[in-house]
Amino acid sequence: MYQKAASPATVIAAAAREVRTARHEDLPRRLSNLAERIETELGNPETLRSIAGDLAPLALELGCGTVVGASSTGERIAGAFIATYGADLEMSQRRERGSVLIVDGVLTTGVQMQRAIRKAREAGADKVSGIVVAADHDALRLCNADPKTRVIALAEF
Length: 157
Description:
It contains six helices and four strands, in the order αααβαβαβαβ. The chain has a four-stranded parallel β-sheet with strand order 1-2-3-4, with helices on both faces. 55% of the residues lie in helices and 19% in strands. It is globular, with a radius of gyration of 15 Å. The chain is an alpha/beta fold. It has a single domain (8-156), classed as 3-Layer(aba) Sandwich (Rossmann fold). It has helices at residues 8-20, 27-42, 45-62, 72-91, 111-122, 137-143; strands spanning 66-69, 99-107, 127-135, 149-156.
């Protein structure tokens, strides 16, 4: 019997739920499994396109004119997004000059995202937003503490 494969976002969300429900002593192993799952999923070009597709409506809604990665994983996602949806981004009526979207795979502490946000602002970005595939809810809250920044997660743990 044919079974439809789970979408990349579903697979990653399931791994994120495992992190959320992990006992404290299991947390490092579960986080490592989540990061490994995301890396594995992102090794597939179809998965990259699928995740880029999940990000596209959010990026267009946020009116971002530039997309960058917060890490090497984020750079791969950003590259797939630009290759697939770059023309849509350029043609968006809501595109804001000086508006940057930072993307990443996993947000565990928020340090990489905050560093990327700071760099974008230092480079002259007027508005900075972030989208991650999966995020720790406390790290996400920390990144959103600044009212001038909005970071969104496709899945939380």
